[in-house]
Amino acid sequence: MPAQNALPDTFADWPASHARQVLEPGPVVLLTTRHEGRDNVMTLGWHQVLDFSPSRISCMVSAGNHSFAALRASGTCAINVPEADLLDTLVGIGNCSGAEVDKFARFKLAKAEAREIDVPVLPQCAAILECRLHDARMVEDYNLFILEVVRLCVRVDPAEATFVHFIGDGRFRLTGESVARRALFRPDMLGI
Amino acid sequence: MPAQNALPDTFADWPASHARQVLEPGPVVLLTTRHEGRDNVMTLGWHQVLDFSPSRISCMVSAGNHSFAALRASGTCAINVPEADLLDTLVGIGNCSGAEVDKFARFKLAKAEAREIDVPVLPQCAAILECRLHDARMVEDYNLFILEVVRLCVRVDPAEATFVHFIGDGRFRLTGESVARRALFRPDMLGI
Q1: Is residue A59 part of a domain?
Q2: How far is B1 from chain A (nearest CA, A)?
Q3: Domain for residue B167, yes or no?
Q4: Which residue of B51, B94, B165 is in closest CB contact with A26?
């Protein structure tokens, strides 16, 4: 029996080393945190992959955000990757502050519980990365958090998902056509 | 009169602070370097934006790449952002080594000269970011270079470009539909 309020079984566990399949295409994501009993969610576009195994990523969370203090203090967060059906939601979340509103209530966000960390996750999203803060050395100078992905759950394969990509000035591009070039790859570059 | 072998005037200079418009959507890019008279180019997918002004980005260049040593030693590189017409080229470049082939010759890459740094750039690409190495503290542990964008040149607006997004295992998604949500943004979040 799944734990109370665990992710629904429409999500499959993928190896954490496959986090690049979700993050490398560059989607806008929703970062969730929990600190001192308070849940928060923010919209985030500045992230990258750093390594496969251990699975590491980095993200820049501006010090002005409520989530900055929560992430630094708790050392945990989840990265929830929405599809385009949540476009207005992610824009709305990106344009208000957890200091003023309960964003989960305002944007009618369903919540589930992460498994490896004590953080809420968003089952309306296509993929969820549970993360632990691995290295905070760059936080002071760049607000840059180096995270280890400790669990990856996927509901919609990135080969079929319609992610949202931000191009600034209130404008977006959605993920489009799928193309494969497997025959042009060295065999050791495939599979991940 | 433009400098010898400068970028053609189909490129416009944009403020370096607008680098996010090109990089944040998550395109696969081509990184060019020059060191000890030798030019090189590699395919790169692991990068992110760090700040608007000064315009800063980070990118992970694996220590196994020829470009790693060139970037570290020269302290300069260019990030060239191709459209989907160069898909086979960027896959080919990502699957061979500068140790074995002259990739510029093999892939028939046109070359121009950067303006602010001594690095070749690729005028077949949609946008070009000339970069200086700003902080190498994370290179030892993560192969992560923090760069300052000292010039941004754009030939195809990201609102209209068809970038290439990698989802692993030899598969890609192309940039799709354009959508705007400017009315949902706070005024101070627009314009950049």
Answers
A1: yes
A2: 32
A3: yes
A4: B165
